[in-house]
Specification:
Helix content is 57%, strand content 14%. By secondary structure, it is an alpha+beta fold. It folds into three domains: 226 residues, Rhodopsin 7-helix transmembrane proteins (Rhopdopsin 7-helix transmembrane proteins, Up-down Bundle); 98 residues, Beta-Lactamase; 149 residues, Alpha-Beta Plaits (2-Layer Sandwich). The strands form three sheets. Strands 2-1-5-4-3 form a five-stranded antiparallel beta sheet. A five-stranded mixed beta sheet has the order 7-8-6-11-12, sandwiched between helices. Strands 9-10 form a two-stranded antiparallel ribbon. Strand 11, helix 19 and strand 12 form a beta-alpha-beta unit. The radius of gyration is 33 Å and the shape is flat.
């Protein structure tokens, strides 16, 4: 057993360090949910360490009982804090909901009740041994303690599992953060297991280990990934725009309005409610934009009768079917600018100079609007693209597939779909690393794009699966096209990091039949893909027609051939 003065000093040091992390984390809690969760975890460490330090200095049973009750408030909060920390680190958009907070509070409340009432039932701690004064403040464990311990380790295991999964599958830039937190969690786990295994509860250094975890986690958040964990403050950026930016629905009701727009409305009318969203735009501004949008100038009067001149640029908002559902409007208060222009028109000597300034101001306005439109188009395109391969993602695929299926039914033309899956892809990742796996996916996506026709849709379906939609192509021809691609991929090895990988894929091809919807077509291709997998992989299978008149055709490659590395 370690010396008593050393233990007291160690626990007080842990208390001080954890308190410092708590204070810093609490001040910065609004920067990211992970920092707030770390502040909660550090506060729990403060309670646990301080109670343990004081327990070494007292020999009174009543005081010892009060210290145990106080200590277990922190003990119970640590697993909950670590669990919340793992959720916030893995998912930057995570927020602690009221339901989750209530569920996490159930076990601490039960433990608090059990520890407070322990002198009457001794189910949480065993009765103290009169012959051993140490047991007055640090008694042995009872059955309810072990139930609490099992729950705590379960909660900690869930958090560790999420971090390990994120470390394996998550973004490469975040792996240092996940790894640092996992390494920091090893020390308290080892300390607690040693204390429980040897029964040396008097020298349980678990809070000291958790203090190290808190320090390592805070360092990792600050030095590695805090910017990636801070959500983009869209609302703040929206409100920072000096011009009025508003969206209104087709009936003329305000859907969204930035701070500049709210200030403008309150200049124009008295008695507006606290919540302006939902008010009639037509009533306040005297009309709605034209159906096609455009640019216009408005002259209005504020609530005190002063003239307000606005430059208005509007664009219609369309739904997926092209129907107008509202407008987005950018309004700039040009009252002062116009007044200056009129004054400068009276001063002929400065007319040319002031006209140039006005043209520059208008050019900046149009440039801002063009920038907004460009950013909107870029964001819309990024939303339907896969970040790794550059192919369309699953969301775009389903929209395009529904569109092509409707066109095929209307035109009575064939529509085929191929679902491709890289063979033994897990072996590539396990044997050569995820970088090699990514290179394989990028290489395959390039071949798919190079072989595709302009009207074809090529998308990454998920993981190592790809989908090719072939409008106007019947099933037999689609199978031949995919078979040719399969042969090319099998014959062109991928060179990664000094290794040569022979990559193959299996594919299922299905052709749209009467009565099928896009989901049925995907399902049929998926069934054919599994048939290809069962048939030995590195082959293409054609799905049977739903009425059973056709049977799945075998792939064009002998099942005896195999892939060397994938």
């Amino acid at each position: 057993m370690l010396g008593l003065p050393f233990l007291v000093l160690l626990f007080m040091l842990a208390t001080s360090v954890a308190a410092a992390v708590t204070a810093v984390g609490w001040r910065r809690r609004r920067t990211a949910p992970a920092v707030g969760a770390l502040a909660l975890l550090s506060a729990a460490i403060v309670v646990w360490s301080a109670a343990d330090a004081l327990a070494f200095l007292v020999q009174d049973a009543v005081v010892g009982h009060l210290l145990r009750v106080t200590k277990f408030i922190g003990v119970c909060a640590i697993p909950a804090g670590f669990f919340c920390l793992s959720l916030a680190v893995v998912d930057r958009m995570w927020r602690l909901s009221r339901r989750t907070a209530l569920l996490l509070a159930v076990e601490p409340v039960l433990v608090l009740v059990a520890s407070v009432t322990d002198p009457w039932h001794h189910l949480f701690f065993l009765p103290p041994d009169p012959a051993d004064p140490m047991t007055l403040t640090r008694p042995d464990f009872g059955p309810l303690f072990w139930v609490h311990t099992a729950y705590s380790y379960l909660l900690l295991s869930v958090g560790v599992t999420r971090l390990i999964r994120a470390w394996v599958r998550g973004p490469r830039a975040q792996r240092k953060l996940y790894g640092a937190i996992l390494l920091g969690a090893i020390l308290p786990a080892v300390a607690n297991i040693i204390a429980l295994w040897w029964g040396d509860y008097a020298t349980d250094l678990t809070p000291v280990g958790f203090c190290v975890t808190a320090v390592v986690t805070y360092w990792a958040l600050v030095h590695h990934s805090l910017p990636e964990l801070i959500p983009v403050a869209r609302g703040h950026v929206f409100d920072m725009i000096g011009d009025t930016v508003a969206t209104i629905d087709a009936s003329g009701r305000v859907l969204d309005l930035n701070s500049a727009g709210e200030r403008l409305l309150r200049r124009m009318a008295y008695g507006l409610p606290d919540r302006i969203v939902g008010l009639s735009f037509e009533k306040e501004f005297g009309g709605l934009p034209s159906a096609d949008g455009g640019e216009t100038d408005l002259a209005l009067a504020d609530r005190d009768g002063r003239r307000i001149e606005l430059n208005v640029r509007s664009s219609p908002l369309l739904d997926s079917r092209g129907g107008r559902v509202g407008w987005v409007m950018v309004m700039r208060d040009v009252t002062a600018l116009n007044r200056q222009r009129r004054e400068l028109e009276q001063a002929n000597a400065r007319l040319h100079e002031q006209r140039h300034e006005l043209e520059q101001a208008n050019a900046r306005l149009h440039e801002q609007l063009r920038t907004i439109e460009t950013l909107r188009a870029d964001l819309a395109e990024q939303a339907v693209r896969d970040a790794l391969t550059g192919l369309h993602n699953r969301r775009h695929l389903m929209e395009a597939l529904r569109r092509e299926a409707a066109r095929a039914v209307a035109d009575r033309s064939p529509l085929s779909l191929a679902l491709l899956d890289v063979d033994h892809f897990k072996q590539v990742n396990d044997g050569y690393g995820h970088g090699a796996g990514d290179e394989v996916l990028v290489r395959l996506s390039g071949l798919l794009t190079g072989q595709a026709r302009p009207q074809d849709v090529v998308a990454r379906y998920g993981g190592e699966e790809f989908v090719v939609v072939l409008p106007g192509v019947p099933g037999d021809r689609a199978r031949d096209m995919v078979e040719a691609l399969r042969a090319r991929v099998a014959g062109e090895p991928v060179h990664v990091g000094g290794h040569t990988l022979h990559v193959t894929f299996s594919a299922g091809v299905a052709c749209l039949s009467g009565g099928q919807d896009p989901e049925d077509l995907l399902h049929a291709a998926d069934e054919a893909l599994y048939a290809a997998k069962r048939g030995g992989r590195d082959r293409v299978e054609l799905a049977a027609a739903p009425d059973g008149r056709e049977t799945a055709a075998s792939g064009h490659r002998d099942s005896g051939s195999s892939s060397a590395a994938a």
